[in-house]
Design goal:
It is built from 7 helices and 8 strands; from the N terminus they run ααββαβββαββαααβ. The chain is of the alpha+beta class and 266 residues long. The protein has an 8-stranded antiparallel β-barrel. The longest helix is centred in the first third of the chain and has 25 residues.
Length: 266
């Protein structure tokens, strides 16, 4: 029930804070310096809202042509400062996704499809059908990204709340390889060292951390105790389906929509 959900969330939050405190204690001075001095070369905004219920494929067949609601509940605006020097190709691609240019895939009208409360981050930008709140497939030539082959691009750390990175690990788990639009935002309060060296930090939230927190507080699908028990058993015997089933536990129960986006003056 809801009380049990609240208790679970509180326990998860305390665990994340404890883990984060340990991570902060061992963070290297170089990593701290990088986090504090990364140069912001451009800024974008993401306006965020919510539709009751998850994206509904049946609605995509209607006259509005989309699986999301017509008037999402507004959450507010997130302003992201982008590190064009540290991750030039990733930033270039993200700017294009927020530019609203004709014939260019966009983040507007797409959803945040993962809320990982246990690890402290949210993920958006999944590739697929725009009718279902997903990003149109990115052209490998137009959206090529040399950052993924540069070791220096992976040096950024997920130390502060509001860290924004190219979510390569999430994309791979979703079966997306090569160029991806998936991005994540850490929700705090603790660092998330498990994301380091696997994803490319390319910005930070400068305004709207309260909006990020609101996203992180959204309910996700909760498995029954029986489902948890079966999943634990499947994982114990090495059944690959265990991981796939558990991935559904971080899906939000509502469609959390980027209602609009754009590029701001740096």
């Amino acid at each position: 029930d809801d009380d049990d959900d609240d208790d679970d969330d509180a326990t998860t939050g305390r665990r994340a804070t404890l883990v984060g405190a340990c991570a902060a204690a061992v963070m290297t001075p170089r990593a701290r310096a990088m986090d504090a001095t990364a140069n912001v070369t451009a800024r974008v905004y993401l306006d965020v809202g919510a539709c009751e219920g998850a994206a509904n494929a049946a609605r995509a067949l209607g006259d509005d042509g989309g699986a999301l609601c017509a008037t999402p509940e507004p959450f507010g605006r997130i302003v992201v400062g982008l590190y064009g020097d540290a991750a030039p190709d990733t930033v270039r691609n993200f700017l294009a996704l927020c530019s609203n240019a004709a014939s260019t895939p966009t983040l507007a009208g797409t959803v945040f499809h993962k809320i990982d409360k246990g690890n402290g981050y949210v993920v958006g930008g999944k590739s697929g059908s725009p009718r279902l709140g997903q990003v149109s497939a990115l052209s490998g030539e137009r959206f090529s990204n040399g950052d993924v082959t540069r070791a220096s691009a992976f040096e950024g750390r997920h130390f502060r709340p509001g860290t924004v990175s190219l979510a390569l690990e999430s994309a791979a788990k979703d079966g997306e390889y090569g160029t991806t639009a998936q991005f994540l935002i850490t929700t705090g309060p603790a660092p998330v060292p498990s994301l380091d060296n696997k994803n490319i930090v390319f910005g930070r939230v400068e305004q709207g951390l309260d909006v990020v927190q609101r996203l992180s507080n959204e309910k996700t699908f909760k498995p029954s105790e029986t489902a948890r028990a079966y999943n634990a058993l499947a994982n114990l015997v090495g059944d690959s389906r265990a991981g796939k089933a558990k991935a559904a536990w971080i899906k939000p129960t509502r469609a959390l929509v980027i209602t609009s986006c754009g590029v701001l003056d740096a």
